[in-house]
Amino acid sequence: MTKPSKPASELERPRPTTARITMWICGGAVGIYMVVSGLVGALTTG
Length: 46
Known about the structure:
Layout: H1 5-12, H2 15-45
């Protein structure tokens, strides 16, 4: 709070952000795959 350089250094270091982004990508990929596979299955079965 006293030094405004702390958030800047945190933004410069993408260690926690990359971990969160990877988590989001993994979860999002699984969710999208589930939805797409469900839609394709519904369309194929008719």
